[in-house]
Amino acid sequence: MDDTDLDIDFEAEAETSGTLAAAQAKLQKIKADLQACKKERQEYLDGWQRLRAEIANQKRDDVAHTTRVKNMVREEILEDLLPALDAFDMAMQGGGWSKVDAAWRSGVEYIHTQLLATLEKHEVIAFGVPGDRYSPHEHEAIAEEAAEGPWRVRDVRRRGYRLGDRILRPAQVTITGTEEAQA
Predict the structure, then answer these.
(1) Domain-by-domain residue ranges, the chain?
(2) What is 123-183's CATH number, 3.40.50.12780, 3.40.50.150, 1.10.1760.20, 2.30.22.10?
(3) Rounded to two decimals, what is the model's pTM?
(4) Which residue from 86, 100, 114, 151 could staple onto 177, CB 3.0 to 4.6 Å apart?
(5) Which letter does DSSP use for residue 150 in this model?
(6) Residues 6+ apart with CB under 8 A from 160
(7) Could you report how far apart the first and last alpha carbons of the chain are, in Å?
C-alpha cells in the first residue's frame, strides 16, 4: 500500500463522518420541526373543539331564549283574552240572560265555548268552582264566611286560569270554613 491509498481512506472516512454528522443534524432538525407541527396541530385541535362546544352551547341557549320569548308572548296574548271571557261569564250569569232570544243566547254560548276550547288547545285551563278546596296559590279570597270544616270555595266571582303548571290568574272567590279546620 502506498501513501496515496492512506490519504484516500482517511479522506473517505472524514467525508463519511462529516456526512453522518450532517445527516444527524438534519434528522434532529426534522424531529424538532415534527414536534413543533404536533404542538401546533394540538393547539388548532383544542381551539376547534372549544369553538365547537361554544357553538353547541350558543345553539342551546338560543333555543331556550326563543322558547322563553314565545312563552312570554303566548302568555301575554292569553292574559289579554281573559277579560273578554269574564265579560261572557258575567253576561251569561245575569238574570236577564234567560230573557234573551234563545237563538241569540245559543250563538253567544257557542262563541264562549269556542273560546274556551281554543284556550284548552293551548293548555289553558279554567278553574274555580263552588265546592273546591281553597288554596291561596290558586284563589284570591275576596270574602270569608265562618263555617264548620276547612276553607272551601262558596262562590266564584271571577274564574282563574292556569297555563300548564303556571297560574295565569287566580280565581276570585268567596270562601267558607275555619282556620282551625284548615290544618
Answers:
(1) 1-87, 123-183
(2) 2.30.22.10
(3) 0.64
(4) 151
(5) S
(6) 126, 127, 128, 138, 139, 167, 168, 169, 170, 171, 172
(7) 122
